[in-house]
């Protein structure tokens, strides 16, 4: 107890030095644990999303781009496929095709045009409001609602992606009719609309006399005033009937099609139909693509581990030097203790008590940090994956 | 209180040799040791305290032959029987004055830190004029106050012998006499003898006896007469 008392008194008196040592030691302990936790959670989240998506149909090209766009709603823009491909799957009777249109965004979040099957397939629950029912409706993910501070009754305006396109259309105002329960998946970071709404944003479908002008906004006749958007489309009860699409729906685009085969046999048959390397489309298994990505990440992690180990050794050596110099500085104190009759081993006991106290405090701090990371890993990984794509 | 007989000691590396044929210090006696630097004054204190062990001879302190004790026994003996006062005070900067006084109780199982010890520390501090400064760290005390803390630390264990190694060496002339008087006063009250190494010849009249170590060393070399 006396050794602990003296150790505590010394550490408290030299609090700045103690704090630096504790923080450095805590970091050395915390970083590998946190990295491992986040990477493991990332691996689980990535693989889980991949494994939960049996097949993915898209334009021939990068399988990773296709997967990232359709599963993680990333920035990748794979060549679109025609809706005729969706119809072909339906007609085959081998599975359920779910189109995923991810070409547009709003407020920094991807607008995902899809069908109601998507919500059943991903088992997404509505936390607030209702699901999609009318052209223009938007259902937002939990993170979108939190980040934008919006909920049911608010509206979103799609980003003017076609600003410099002479044939482009005005952004679309979409009323938020529902907010999804959080899932810690990329779905939390998405704005879901019916795929027809996505086509309206793209200019394939449109209404008439439906543009809200700057004057409307200035006169207060517009419900939404956004300084960044001076003109946009709004779908209302009055003009919804005027919305129409030009051409055959079979030719309309979608970024990808999630295919849910009826069974293994159906999956095998479907995969066989898209084996032709010269065809315009490909049917891939996202789990394999994701596993390849994860393997690459973990090869990089091995390198990261080596770097972390080297840094940890260097930092430990620095701490050791600091402690050693501290003991050297205290040589006089040790000599005094010996003269006053300190028992044999007292000095070692005292220095050990200090070192152990420092390490325990560091471990406590690192443990708390690791606990925080562990508890929030899924949410943070979900956010990081959405950010990274 | 202290009886030294035919004491022999040497530092191998430097060739330093010390031979004390005989030396005695009576109970409650105050003896000063003077002499040139390197003459072995501090070495004698360390031998009497059991910090160093002699090559030959006998050192009897309060009826115990220190030279015959094991290392662990010497440490216990030192903690319970001897109080040290150093020139540089040797206070711990991270402990307040009160805990510096009680420091001996923190480093050895030979002493038990109980309420009596705490009361004694408080009483000594009051007697030494630092009763209101017990919660201050050494760097918030003057040199004189620091030495008073050191004196309290030397006396709090109620030792039979106080060994003072140039205890007033770092103090201004006014403080020297006051601190020495305080040390004598408190030692007398505790019934302890004082053996003090000093270079301050103006302080010598305050001691009951003065041992000139220069003569002593010559005498030692010459296997001189008892002191």
The main sheet of chain B orders its strands as 6-7-8-3-9
Major beta-sheet overview of chain B: 5 strands, parallel
Largest sheet of chain A: 12 strands, mixed
Q: What sequence of helices (H) and strands (E) makes up the elements of chain A?
A: HHEHEHEEHEEHEEEHEEHEEEEHEHHH
Keywords (chain B): ATP-binding, Nucleotide-binding, Transport
Pfam family, one (chain B): ABC_tran
Domain ABC transporter (chain B): 2-227
GO molecular function (chain B): ATP binding; ATP hydrolysis activity; transmembrane transporter activity
What's the structural blueprint in terms of helices and strands?
The complex is a heterodimer of chains A (389) and B (227).
Chain A: H1 2-13, H2 15-51, E1 55-59, H3 63-71, E2 81-82, H4 84-92, E3 95-106, E4 109-114, H5 117-121, E5 126-129, E6 138-140, H6 142-148, E7 155-157, E8 172-180, E9 190-194, H7 195-202, E10 205-206, E11 211-212, H8 214-219, E12 232-234, E13 244-245, E14 253-254, E15 256-261, H9 264-273, E16 281-284, H10 286-329, H11 331-339, H12 346-388
Parallel strand pairs in A: 4-9, 6-8, 8-12
Antiparallel strand pairs in A: 1-15, 1-16, 2-14, 3-4, 3-15, 5-8, 6-9, 7-8, 10-13, 11-12
Chain B: E1 2-11, E2 16-25, E3 30-34, H1 41-49, E4 56-61, E5 64-65, H2 71-81, E6 82-86, H3 97-101, H4 103-107, H5 115-127, H6 143-155, E7 161-165, H7 173-190, E8 193-197, E9 209-212, H8 213-221
Parallel strand pairs in B: 3-8, 3-9, 6-7, 7-8
Antiparallel strand pairs in B: 1-2, 1-4, 4-5
Helix pairs in contact in B: 6-7
Structural description of this entry:
The complex is a heterodimer of chains A (389) and B (227). With 389 residues, chain A is α+β, with helices and mostly antiparallel strands. Chain A folds into two domains: 2-46 and 294-388, no CATH class; 55-284, no CATH class. Chain A is built from twelve helices and 16 strands. In chain A, the strands form three sheets. In chain A, strands 1, 3, 4, 5, 6, 7, 8, 9, 11, 12, 15 and 16 form a twelve-stranded mixed β-sheet that branches. In chain A, a hairpin with a 2-residue loop joins strand 3 and strand 4. In chain A, helix 2 packs antiparallel against helix 10 (286-329) and helix 3 packs across helix 10. The longest helix of chain A has 44 residues, at 286-329. Mean pLDDT of chain A is 85; it is low at 223-230. Chain B is of the alpha/beta class and 227 residues long. Chain B has a single domain (2-221), classed as P-loop containing nucleotide triphosphate hydrolases (Rossmann fold), CATH 3.40.50.300. In chain B, strand 1 (2-11) and strand 2 form a beta hairpin. In chain B, helix 6 runs parallel beside helix 7 (173-190). The chains are: A alpha+beta (389), B alpha/beta (227). The A-B interface holds A 2, 5-6, 9-10, 12-14, 332-333, 336-344, 346 and B 49, 51, 71-72, 75-80, 82, 84, 86, 88, 90, 92-95, 99, 103-110, 113, 137. Chain B: One of its GO terms (cellular component) is plasma membrane. Chain B: Pfam families: ABC_tran. Chain B: It comes from Pseudooctadecabacter jejudonensis.
């Amino acid at each position: 107890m006396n050794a602990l008392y003296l150790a505590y008194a010394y550490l408290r008196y030299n609090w700045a030095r103690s704090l630096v040592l504790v923080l450095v030691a805590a970091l050395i302990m915390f970083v590998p644990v946190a990295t491992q936790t986040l990477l493991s959670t990332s691996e689980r989240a990535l693989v889980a999303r991949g494994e939960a998506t049996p097949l993915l149909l898209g334009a021939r090209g990068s399988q990773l781009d296709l997967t990232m766009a359709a599963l993680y709603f990333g920035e990748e823009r794979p060549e679109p496929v025609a809706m005729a491909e969706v119809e072909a799957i339906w007609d085959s009777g081998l599975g359920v095709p779910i189109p995923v249109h991810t070409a547009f965004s709003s407020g920094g979040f991807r607008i995902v045009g899809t069908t109601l099957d998507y919500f059943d397939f991903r088992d997404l629950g509505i936390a607030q409001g209702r699901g999609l029912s009318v052209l223009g409706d938007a259902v937002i993910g939990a993170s979108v609602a939190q980040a934008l501070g919006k909920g049911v009754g608010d509206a979103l305006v799609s980003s003017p992606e076609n600003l410099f396109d002479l044939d482009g259309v005005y952004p679309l105002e979409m009323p938020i009719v529902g907010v999804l329960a959080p899932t810690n998946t990329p779905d939390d970071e998405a704005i879901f609309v019916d795929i027809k709404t996505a086509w309206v944003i793209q200019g394939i479908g449109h209404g008439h006399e439906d543009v809200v002008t700057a004057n409307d906004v200035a006169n207060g006749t517009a419900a939404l005033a956004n300084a960044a958007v001076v003109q946009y489309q709004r779908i209302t009860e009055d003009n919804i009937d005027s919305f129409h699409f030009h051409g055959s729906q079979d030719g309309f685009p979608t970024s990808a099609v999630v295919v849910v085969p009826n069974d293994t046999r159906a999956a095998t048959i479907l995969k066989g139909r898209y084996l032709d390397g010269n065809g315009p489309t490909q049917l891939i298994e996202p789990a394999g693509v994701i596993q390849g990505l994860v393997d690459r990440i973990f090869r990089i992690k091995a390198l990261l581990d080596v770097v972390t180990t080297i840094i940890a050794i260097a930092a430990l050596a620095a701490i050791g030097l600091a402690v050693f110099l501290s003991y050297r500085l205290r040589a006089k104190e040790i000599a005094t203790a010996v003269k006053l009759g300190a028992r044999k081993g007292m000095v070692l006991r005292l220095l050990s008590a200090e070192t152990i106290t420092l390490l325990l405090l560091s471990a406590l701090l690192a443990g708390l940090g690791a606990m925080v990371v562990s508890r929030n890993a899924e949410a943070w990984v979900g956010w990081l994956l959405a950010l990274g794509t | 209180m202290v009886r030294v007989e035919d004491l022999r000691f040497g530092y191998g590396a430097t060739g330093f040799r010390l031979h004390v044929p005989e030396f005695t210090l009576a109970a409650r006696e105050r003896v000063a040791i003077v002499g040139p630097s390197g003459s072995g004054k501090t070495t004698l204190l360390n031998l009497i305290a059991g910090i160093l062990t002699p090559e030959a001879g006998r050192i009897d302190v309060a009826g115990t032959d220190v030279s015959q004790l094991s290392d662990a026994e010497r440490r216990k003996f030192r903690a319970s029987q001897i109080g040290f006062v150093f020139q540089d005070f040797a206070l711990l900067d991270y402990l307040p004055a009160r805990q510096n006084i009680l420091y001996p109780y923190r480093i050895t199982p030979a002493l038990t830190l109980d309420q009596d010890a705490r009361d004694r520390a408080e009483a000594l501090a009051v007697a030494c004029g630092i009763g209101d400064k017990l919660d201050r760290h050494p760097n918030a005390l003057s040199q004189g106050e620091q030495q008073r803390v050191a004196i309290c630390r030397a006396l709090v264990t109620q030792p039979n012998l106080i060994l003072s190694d140039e205890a007033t060496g770092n103090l201004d002339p006014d403080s020297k006499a006051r601190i020495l008087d305080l040390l004598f006063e408190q030692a007398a009250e505790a019934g302890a003898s004082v053996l003090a190494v000093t270079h301050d010849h103006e302080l010598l009249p305050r001691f009951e006896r003065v041992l000139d170590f220069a003569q002593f060393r010559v005498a030692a070399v010459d296997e001189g007469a008892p002191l």
